[in-house]
Amino acid sequence: MSTEKKSAKEWPLVKGRALNDYRVFRTRSEIARSPRTGEEHEFFIIEGGDWVNVIPITPQEEVILIEQYRHGSKRIELEIPGGIVDAQDASPIAAAERELLEETGYRGTRSTFLATLRPNPAIQENNLHIVLIEGAVPSADVRFDPAEDIHIVPMPLREIDHLIAHGKIAHSLVVAAFHMLDLHRKGLIRA
What we know:
Layout: E1 13-21, E2 26-33, E3 40-47, E4 51-57, E5 62-70, E6 75-79, E7 82-84, H1 92-104, E8 106-107, E9 110-117, E10 128-134, E11 137-138, E12 151-156, H2 160-165, H3 172-185
């Protein structure tokens, strides 16, 4: 057995083609060459805009969670507000502030960018930006998109770990967002 340290290498793109457009995302096929074997393989990619997830915390240390029916899981999921970063958004923070206001009617006094994650780099090319918004208070009426039906659920921040541990919060990107908040509060990531 060789003890030589090896690194992964990029796969050169041979060709690609657009497949379908589904309004909120598109698909494409790519043929790439293995740097190890030289063989060509086909991969399928989901193209889409970047997303933002918002962790809104009130002055009373409650997180503003949302419940909504998700057609993929066929369940009502407990999540945090979020959505697509629109072209007119100046930054992920601006998108987070907009999404929070639209989905919950809340505004905050301080917004902090926490991280950029890749939701599923095996098949997706977009990023997920996580933003903490503190001092969140009700400020306006909600403005749901036509396909949204959201219920607002304020929850003490201290209960989040319990909700995750017991599967009440099961959306992996929401779990990841709370992990980034934990790292931020421990001083392990600096905004």
